[in-house]
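Supplementary Note 2. Why include the ligand at all?

Several targets in our set were suspected to adopt different conformations when bound, so apo predictions alone were not considered sufficient. For every target with a known small-molecule partner we therefore ran a joint prediction. The input for zinc ion is given below.
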Amino acid sequence: MNESSLSRQSADQKGSGFSVDRIDLVRTLHDLNSIELDCNKRPTELEFLRCRLRQRLPAEILAIHEKLIAEGRRSVAPRFANACTECSGEVVVAGGAKRIAGMFVQCPHCGTLLYG
Ligand SMILES: [Zn+2]
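The joint prediction is reproduced in token form.
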């Protein structure tokens, strides 16, 4: 845990930046998927980037991500027309449903973190 980067992050947040953070979280997960799934041998630079990206994820997201990656699957996908775009299973989300990190639902069929 890096104290100085944490305090700098919170100083950058001005309340209205929340939606930007959400997009950032999706991008971070996509980047991590590319690094962890598509490369068998990672050069040092990529390993460094991977660590930095992981530090940006909330613990509950990281735990789910690690489990899916360990199974060789992508951890994040968009939800489209009430379906998971990863496994095509139906995913209906009630309006008041609890979302992981305020934005994701986990696909009940394949476990992928879905946004949208
Ligand atoms: Zn699914």
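The CA atoms of residues 68 and 111 lie 8 Å apart. Strands lie at 76-80, 83-84, 105-106, 113-115. Comparable summaries for the other entries are listed in the accompanying table.
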